[in-house]
Amino acid sequence: MIKKIITGVVLNGLALYLVTKFVPDITYTGGIYFFLIGGFVIGVLNSFVKPIMKILSLPFVIMTAGLFLLAINAILFWLTVKITNVVGIAGVSVTVSNPWTYLIGAIVLGIVNWAIHIIIHK
Fold first, then answer.
1. Is 122 part of any domain?
2. Which residues pair with 28 in a beta bridge?
3. CA–CA distance from 86 to each of 37, 43, 61, 62, 92 (Å)?
4. In principle, which of 53, 97, 110, 119 could form an S-S bond with 25, CB 3.0–4.6 Å?
C-alpha cells in the first residue's frame, strides 16, 4: 500500500517535471520538493476530487463527446497550483502566467501520465 502511494507520488512528480519543461509559461521554485509536493497533491486530487467532478459533469461530458474532460483536468491542474502555493513550505511555489496555460499544462500532464502508466504497467 505504502509502496503504491510512494510510486504514485514519484510518477506524478515526474509528470509535473515534464510539464514544467514542455510548457514555457510555468515557473516554479523549490526544486525536488516542489515536484514531491505537487505529485502528492495531484495524486490526492485524482483519487478523491476527479471522480466526483466526472460524475457531476457527466451530462457535459456526454454532450461534448468527452472534450469536457479537458476542462476537468485544467481545473484539477489549477487546484494543484493553488494548493501547492498555499501549503507554505519555504521556497516552494509555482506560477502560471495565463489561464490558457492551465489547459495546455493539463493536456501535457494527461498525456505524460498516460504514457508513464502504459510503460509502468507493461
1. no
2. 94
3. 11, 17, 30, 34, 10
4. 97
Could you give the CA distance from residue 57 to residue 100 in angstroms, rounded to a whole number?
21
Give the pTM.
0.90
pLDDT at res. 7: 87
How far apart CA 83 and CA 1 sit, in angstroms, is: 24
How many alpha carbons lie under 13 Å from residue 2 in its C-beta half-sphere? 0
C-alpha distances out from residue 117 to 36, 50, 105, 109, 114, Å: 18, 17, 18, 12, 5
35 occurs within a structural domain: yes
Question: Is 49 part of any domain?
Answer: yes
Range 61-89 average pLDDT: 93
Q: Within 10 Å of residue 89's Cβ, how many Cβ atoms?
A: 12
41 lies in which domain range?
2-117
Q: How many domains does the chain have?
A: 1
Please check whether residue 42 lies inside any domain of the structure: yes
pLDDT tens, residue by residue, 18-40: 999 999 999 999 999 999 999 99
